[in-house]
Write a structure and sequence with these properties.
This protein is of the alpha/beta class. It is built from twelve helices and nine strands. It has a six-stranded mixed sheet, with helices on both faces. The chain has a three-stranded mixed sheet with strand order 5-7-8. A hairpin with a 2-residue loop joins strand 1 and strand 2. It is globular.
């Protein structure tokens, strides 16, 4: 059995001062470009269509865990190198393993491995930074899950997404897809896509509200920029708390529960100097200079 890396298991709630990253972390399967307060993350296994192998799982777990306290990063973009966003689980890597290694794994070991993959999307939702996925080419299985777990999705015209798990003898309910997809497109379309494993292309994804915009593949980065620029005009705390409240409100048991979270957010934000600066900037018709305090 593969030895698990310690990095992927570091505590989520490490002290904030240990988490700020002034220089990009180095990973085997991820390329990270620092662009001011934006992390531009690229899944970087283009020869394998960025399929999720054990090392990429480790790298994604470590990266998204480290974001939790990292206030130097305000937004993350996620994309794939080469011809695909992410083709899902690397089945070739699995098939190349020794048969005795595959067959000797019991349910307990299998559940640990499964939970390590599904923990990626949990960490994507826990991190306070909005995640913008730029999807082109195949986004299948686990790649589909990464896109769904993002906050905003922009599709290239070549994008093709599906819940591929059901086509290889598994359930289509995997890595959060059964949670995210019906909330994004409704139960009817989610049932169609998950029960058949059929692909949804970029244009239909736009029609059903799965993506915000469809552009030529070469224009994905440029298309994302207005979203990033507009989010950067907001106060850092306001942006973080908006993502958190949206997460909570999706599952709120009542209107009262959602409003209680909203009221809490507004009172907390109103105590900051950034709120005073935002009001001054609005009245003076200038851009605010937020300090995240």
């Amino acid at each position: 059995m593969r030895r698990l890396s310690l990095a992927a298991h570091r505590p989520m709630l490490a002290p904030p001062e240990q988490q700020d990253r002034e220089t990009p972390m180095t990973y085997e399967t991820l390329s990270i470009e620092k662009d001011g307060a934006i992390d531009r993350v690229t899944l970087n296994r283009p020869d394998s269509l960025n399929a999720l192998n054990p090392q990429m799982v480790d790298d994604l777990l470590d990266y998204f865990a480290g974001l939790y306290w990292d206030r130097s990063v305000r937004i993350v973009t996620l994309q794939g190198a080469g011809k695909a966003f992410c083709a899902g689980l690397d089945l070739k890597a699995r098939s190349n393993a020794a048969p005795d290694q595959i067959n000797s794994r019991g349910p307990a070991d299998g559940l640990v491995s499964q939970r390590r993959i599904s923990e990626i999307v949990m960490r994507m939702r826990r991190c306070p930074q909005p995640i913008v996925s730029l999807v082109h080419g195949p986004a299948c299985g686990g790649g589909f899950a990464l896109a769904l777990a993002s906050d905003i999705r922009i599709a290239g015209r070549s994008a093709r997404m599906n819940a591929a798990f059901i086509r290889i003898g598994l359930s289509a309910c995997d890595i959060g897809v059964s949670y995210f997809l019906p909330r994004l497109v409704g139960v009817t379309i989610a049932s169609e896509l998950m029960l058949t494993g059929r692909f949804i292309n970029a244009e239909r994804a736009l029609r059903v509200g799965l993506v915000s915009e469809v552009v030529p593949d070469a224009d994905l980065k440029a298309a994302a920029q207005p979203y990033l620029d507009e989010m950067l005009t907001t106060s850092p705390l306001g942006l973080r708390m908006t993502k958190e409240c949206l997460n909570m409100s999706v599952d709120a048991g009542s209107l009262e529960a959602a409003i209680a979270m909203e009221d809490r957010n507004q009172i907390l934000c109103a105590q900051t100097e950034d709120f005073n600066e935002g009001v001054r900037a609005f009245l003076q018709k200038r851009a605010p200079a937020y300090q995240d305090r």
